[in-house]
Amino acid sequence: MLNKKFQIAVFGLGYIGLPTAALFAKNGFSVVGVDINPEIVEAINQGRSPILEPGLDELVKDVVSAGNLSATTDGLEAGKNSKVMVVIVPTPIDENNKSDLRAVKSACETISKTLKKDDLVIIESTIPPKTCENIIIPLLENSGLSASDDFGLVYTPERALPNNTLHEMTHNARVIGGINNKSVDQAASIYEKITNGKIIRVKDLITAEMVKLMENTYRDTNIALANELAIICENLGIDAIEAINAANHHPRVNIHTPGPGVGGHCLSIDPYFIVEMAERKGSKAELIKTARMINESMPLHVVKLVEDSLKDIRKPIDDSTIGILGIAYKGNVADTRETPAVPLINILKNRGATVKANDPYVPSTNIESLGAIPVNFQEALSCDCVILITDHELYKNITPDDIKNRVFICTRPILNPEDFRKKGVIFKGVGRF
Ligand SMILES: NC(=O)c1ccc[n+]([C@@H]2O[C@H](COP(=O)([O-])OP(=O)(O)OC[C@H]3O[C@@H](n4cnc5c(N)ncnc54)[C@H](O)[C@@H]3O)[C@@H](O)[C@H]2O)c1
Hints:
This protein is of the alpha/beta class. It folds into 3 domains: 7-203, NAD(P)-binding Rossmann-like Domain (Rossmann fold); 213-295, N-(1-d-carboxylethyl)-l-norvaline Dehydrogenase, domain 2 (Orthogonal Bundle); 297-428, Rossmann fold. It contains 17 helices and 14 strands. Strands 3-2-1-4-5-6-7-8 form an 8-stranded mixed beta sheet, sandwiched between helices. The protein is elongated, with a radius of gyration of 24 Å. The termini are far apart. Nicotinamide-adenine-dinucleotide binds at residues 11-17, 34-37, 40, 75, 88-91, 103, 106-107, 125-126, 158, 160, 162, 265-266.
């Protein structure tokens, strides 16, 4: 069993890597964080979190000032002095929806150069099934050491939810699959120091890889079902939100919430990792692909709602200003990765609209780089048509009088359509009738 005296090196200090490193450090481990971005490294060494996440700034400040966490761009130096290396680097998809594993490969190449006998490598990045076997083990064995005999390896997926990351990391169950029992035991002895959640041991590396992908594919597919039901309900004159809420009282039903599309670094990407490997092995993964297609088409559906509403007031879209409320992919976060707001902005602009956007969490420069004109809340509300995309807390207080030009597309079920309609606002929403 490993004790707390050794150093852990965490490769990748982003949304998941930094809180993980900080929690290891808080629980008495000596932690060095490695990131290729010198600005991130500098901020952490100054005791600041570059990521907006409740509680993280204070935690980073505490563990850095206590000397338990430091950061560096020098992965070789960090690896040399560490017994455990944790990889939490990004794993996006490319333009063909295939996994881009360059960061994982690069981190593992660095680790292989300083890997020592009895070291443990922990992979947390989300990866397609068989990545440990086909890519990571051969890269680590470039060290001249043999996986299992000389060094340990586990895969343990992270499930923390942004905006509640620290709570989830310290309470969620932790799934661990490894190359051998010794690796799993060692990893379990580390993670049980930071989480009260159950440690769930699975048979091997590939099972653990698949667990993460199944979870997010379940959610993405369920959201696609909700979106499809919502569009059908709109056409049938049914309020889908009311119907879904009622259906979910069935003890074995949990239909998710329809919306403008699925964003973020997980749900909109991870199902493609299953598709990629399934197709390579001759399986079709048709339901998973269809779900992705439905969710990716939702911004187009929102544009249809906009056009229908503008038609009601005889305003051509190419002569309209559109005010988007919320660019982040979900409420109360600043994360815009894969946000459905971006395809929405692009379609609206292609149709000739002037697109303005407000987001209390996202800096104006980011809004601009995503294609919209950044404006304050009031200016967004004064556009010809207002589209609510993100369920930020602030937006839950919007009243009919706030919608200056009386056209409101509310893609999240956070406001009551009737409150707006009885005050003369044209109110449309995904699944709302
Ligand atoms: N964000 C989430 O909610 C979430 C949840 C569960 C799992 N994950 C998975 O965790 C992994 C990391 O995601 P994230 O959201 O933390 O990403 P992120 O983009 O926020 O952070 C990744 C960090 O890794 C750094 N990096 C890139 N290449 C590196 C290298 N070779 N060596 C060292 N650092 C490197 C980047 O500079 C960045 O700071 C991904 O595989 C993701 O799918 C993310």
